[in-house]
Amino acid sequence: MNIGTPAPDFTLYATDGESVTLSEQMGTPTVLVFFPAAFTGVCETEVCTFRDAMANFNDIGATVYGISVDSRFALAAFAEKTALNFTLLSDYNRAATDAYGIRFAGLAGMDGYDVANRSVFVIDAQGNLAWQWIAESLGDEPPYNEVQVAVSELTAGT
Prior knowledge:
This protein is an alpha+beta fold and 158 residues long.
């Protein structure tokens, strides 16, 4: 995907069973944090790092969503275990994963268990892709400071 182009829209279920449509969230910057699987080491570190930085995102008016192919029920348990303060969304049918072009086939050598590659997308208030990072390896963590800078640049002067 190219910076400045419209971000692919999606409707996914949150852990509370409510649906969230990306295009209905526009008006402020949105951060999409795709991660492969709940209850795994690097994924837990990643979501906890975003959890700990939420005050910074709140201060600059950004919404953060964590997205994985896990069920909303598994994500609810994961959110509770990690005391998350942002919404997790279930991409159980992999529609958003495919729309963003980040499908990783065969997690842990399990044929058919395709997950989202670890990646972060920053969407501007108009719904356009402003910044992206896609892991070269599932074990890579995102450049957290760069995510915050990308969002801050969108809100500077507003």
